[in-house]
Design goal:
Elements lengths: L4 E2 L13 H10 L4 E4 L8 H11 L2 E12 L2 E8 L6 H27 L5 H9 L6 H10 L6 H9 L12 E2 H10 L3 E4 L9 H13 L4 E6 L4 H13 L3 E5 L37
Parallel strand pairs: 1-2, 2-3, 3-5, 6-7, 7-8
Antiparallel strand pairs: 3-4, 4-6
The site of adenosine monophosphate has 10 residues, from helix 5 and helix 6.
């Protein structure tokens, strides 16, 4: 039996397709026993997820996925076991929310220049009160019949060098780690295999992340190919970091891996949750 823990997924509070309740129900149905909800720069879904988790008899870990700019690149840092009510954290995320609105508006201006009108309004309508992400812009363009699927929207319009891309300066790495620590949580580098950094920068990042107080990296994630599970297990060991695992589930048909389908961490990893009382029944 694989270890029934999933420490990375998204709800409608960011760019996931399922409400916190539906997400937790799905996780429970798939055999997940310990689940962290990690919406992008947003903790608003945690209270609802916690209540649903109680109903389903599973354990919810408070989480968040923070957008960070490191050496002009966007990386993601997951915070786990945070206090969702922490005022400093909520205040910072309020600022990120506003900045995301401005960024989406600017992106939609770029998209208007290539013939797609009203993308901001359309994405806003889709997102409602959720934090606004590029996924909402992409989904709007697909729903409006302009582009065949979300993947193609990203490739042609929403990545660096494309008409709908706007470079954004997110939080700095030490700031994100500090924010997580100050709300009582641990910082985990999300899907390190996805950043396409090259070996030198990857090693620099891992060193800096650990030196700033980062505790773990995602080793098994829906964003890694199986050979990367082994690669990052070795790197975790080498850089003195613990290993985490999470599906990065966003909804049906939106993720490489469903919930409850994660393979175990490779042999020799130090699981991030080994000393967590709320996960001790998994040992
Ligand atoms: P944002 O934080 O607004 O830049 O949005 C980033 C989100 O877009 C990520 O968390 C992914 O869920 C999604 N995303 C990024 N790249 C792609 C891609 N190539 N295809 C589909 N979704 C993507
Ligand atoms: Mn996402
Ligand atoms: Mn991510
Ligand atoms: Mn994610």
């Amino acid at each position: 039996m694989p270890v029934a823990i999933d420490l990375h997924c998204h709800s409608t509070f960011s760019d996931g397709a399922l409400s916190p309740e539906a997400l937790v129900a799905y996780a429970a149905e798939r055999g997940v026993k310990v689940l962290a909800l990690t919406d992008h720069d947003e903790v608003g879904g945690l209270a609802r997820a916690r209540q649903a988790a109680q109903q389903h008899g599973i354990t919810l870990i408070n989480g968040v996925e923070i957008s960070v700019t490191w050496k002009k690149r966007t990386i993601h840092v997951v915070g786990l076991r945070i206090d969702a009510e922490n005022a400093a954290m909520r205040q910072v995320f309020e600022g990120v929310r506003l900045a995301r609105e401005a960024r989406a508006f600017e992106m939609s201006q770029g998209l208007a220049k290539v013939g797609f009108a009203d993308v901001y309004a359309g994405a806003k309508a889709l997102a409602g009160n959720s934090i606004l992400t590029r996924s909402h812009l992409a989904q709007y363009l697909v729903n409006a019949g302009h582009v065949k699927n979300v993947k193609t929207v990203f490739k042609k319009y929403l990545v660096k060098g494309k008409p709908g891309f706007v470079d954004h300066e997110w939080m700095a790495l030490p700031e994100a780690i500090h924010l997580i620590q100050q709300s009582g949580g641990v910082a985990v580098l999300a899907h390190p295999g996805r950043y396409d950094l090259g070996m030198i920068n990857l090693h620099l990042l891992l060193n800096e992340f650990r030196d700033c107080g980062g505790v773990g990296i995602e080793v098994v994630t829906g964003s890694h190919q199986p050979p990367q599970f082994v690669q990052f297990a070795k790197l975790a060991h080498r850089f003195g970091l613990k290993a985490s695992q999470g599906s990065d589930y966003h909804g049906p048909g939106m993720s490489f891996i469903g919930m409850g389908q994660l393979p175990d961490l490779p042999h020799g990893c130090e699981p991030l949750w080994r000393d967590w009382p709320e996960a001790d029944f998994l040992q």
